[in-house]
Design a protein that fits this description.
With 157 residues, this protein is mainly alpha-helical. Helices cover 41% and strands 7% of the residues. The protein is built from three helices and three strands; from the N terminus they run ααβαββ.
């Protein structure tokens, strides 16, 4: 009576083929999973910021815009948004603004010669490109209770 069985060579070849297929497909699956997580995080943070501006509008009767800073009585127009909006977030750490090297989450070269180039290697945009000008983050910075970093740039209109 003959019993059908696989030889050790056949089993090893099959496992090798499975390993090669797994090695080719796993990076694509991991990247897709990371992209989905990033997309979900961006949507959540967008929602948090939108809710903060909606609550500001409900409390004050108007939507806060960069062009309104002169009409709402801000002494420092550059820091107007930073003084008005943080109370609508759950803030863990207030980093003040990027020009204050001792408290800034992301300091920039504008003050005390912080090395903009080395920070640009650390901080990248959501699509993994290097941020070339960190001075855009100088009008306000704070960390939310969920770990999100909010950076404010109030460009004058």
């Amino acid at each position: 009576m003959k019993v059908g069985a696989f030889t050790i060579a056949e089993v090893l070849i099959t496992l090798g083929i499975i390993g090669v297929v797994a090695a080719m497909t796993l990076p694509a699956l991991i990247t897709r999973n990371q992209n989905k997580a990033l997309e979900a995080s961006l949507k959540k943070n967008y929602s948090i910021i939108l809710q903060a501006f909606d609550m500001y509008q409900a409390d004050n009767g108007y939507r806060l815009k960069a062009s309104d800073v002169n009409t709402i009585g801000c002494k420092n127009t550059k820091m107007c948004l930073k003084t008005r909006i943080p109370s609508y977030f759950k803030i863990l750490r207030d980093c003040v603004y990027g020009g204050n090297v001792s408290t800034a989450c992301i300091p920039y070269k504008g003050n005390d010669n912080i090395d903009d180039e080395s920070n640009s290697k650390i901080y990248k945009s959501f699509n993994n490109t290097k941020i070339s000008n960190l001075s855009y983050f100088d009008d306000g910075q704070f960390v939310l209770s969920d770990g999100s970093l909010i950076l404010i740039e109030n460009q004058q209109v």
